[in-house]
Amino acid sequence: MGIQALSLVTMIAIQAGCVAGGLWSRVPKLRELDEVRKIALVRVSEAKIGHKMVELNVPGLLMCYIAPSDLSSEITKMWLGSFVMRTKSQTPKKDRLAHIIEEKVKAQLSGSNPAVLVVYDRFSTPESTEQMFNEKEIELVVGAFRNLAGVILVSPFNSWDQLPPKRADKNGRSFVEYSLQDGECEKCVIWKNIMVDHQSLIEPVIDCLLSSPANLAKLFA
After folding, report:
1. Full-prediction pTM beyond 0.70?
2. 89 Cβ contact list (under 8 Å, min separation 6)
3. Over the stretch 77-93, which tens digit does the pLDDT of each residue have?
């Protein structure tokens, strides 16, 4: 969408024998892009028929200049034939996780019985998963759902080294790591509900994670 927006006004201007340049404050939505296209057609026509430079301004989204090619000097040199756009920075991992929790709980946890939500993250490094163990704000998201006992963030990865089952606890959060079959390992961060006591549900789940390597070994023995 961003690339399409950057060339939109330029192409409309060129087709009418004009030049254009300016800035986008952000990547537009599809609806906004259609609106800009309609406005750009009108403003380009005004520039050509009136043989003058005109402004195209969609407040908070787009500001640019359009002029017939033989009046290109009327457009400030830094904008002539050039469009720039502010891009959105990557959303922090904690915010992405919070959004996923809210979406999945509202879609899947409709009953009154408490449950545990498991989120798999196959793209983060083991180090970044360990850093999430220090992230307290996820507890605020979990605590807003009365029947959400906890959230487990599971990060699988491959390792030549065998990781013996290990658990660490910090301010109500838990971190576990262990090795599975065929060199696969998992690091997990567990955030518990700090508003409602669901210990009787979440603790057996953590114990199950820690004992899973031994249970799998017995299964494949």
Report:
1. no
2. none
3. 999 999 999 877 778 89
